[in-house]
Design brief:
Shape: rod-shaped
Number of domains: 1
Strand content: 15-25%
Order of helices and strands: HHEEE
Strand order of the largest sheet: 1-2-3
Number of strands: 3
Helix content: 55-70%
Distance between the termini: 52 Å
Length: about 150
């Protein structure tokens, strides 16, 4: 009888360890799949952030170039010897311009022109430097079933 009990007990132990092994392997595969999906989502988000940052800073650089041109133009007007009224008549009181950042965003800049009264005074003052959204930022995509095979 003792021989029969040892064989029956050994069979149950082998089955239990096999089930435990299958369960552990399934858990590892599930966690690996979740990690892969999460890494792909993070990579996609990171790519979007980099593209938006680059386009914003490119728009800022373009705005700085325009401000440099405005500064040179206002300096020429000032150096031409115009009085204050003639200066504002030719330069205007405010200068507004917008630079597209993306399909749905623009960088809006407003510059208030000033007449320098003393050395070191500026020709303009930036009164608005704002990134404004002109559309919706949410991109709607069709849901996809991403399988690994």
């Amino acid at each position: 009888m003792s021989v029969e009990r040892k064989q029956a007990t050994t069979g149950v132990n082998v089955g239990t360890s096999s089930l435990l092994l299958v369960f552990v392997v399934m858990c590892l595969v599930s966690f690996a799949t979740l990690a892969t999906v999460s890494a792909r989502a993070d990579e996609k988000l990171n790519t979007k952030i980099v593209e938006r940052s680059e386009s914003y800073y490119n728009a800022c650089n373009e705005a700085e170039e325009r401000l440099k041109g405005i500064d040179a133009t206002l300096k020429k007007l000032y150096d031409s010897g115009l009085d204050k009224d003639e200066y504002f008549e030719q330069a205007g009181e405010n200068i507004e311009f917008a630079i597209p950042v993306s399909d749905v965003q623009t960088l809006n800049i407003n510059v208030e022109v000033s007449y320098p009264e003393a050395d070191g005074d500026t020709f303009y003052k930036v009164t608005k430097w704002k990134l404004e959204t002109t559309g919706t930022l949410i991109e709607e995509e069709e849901p996809k079933l991403n399988l690994l095979f």
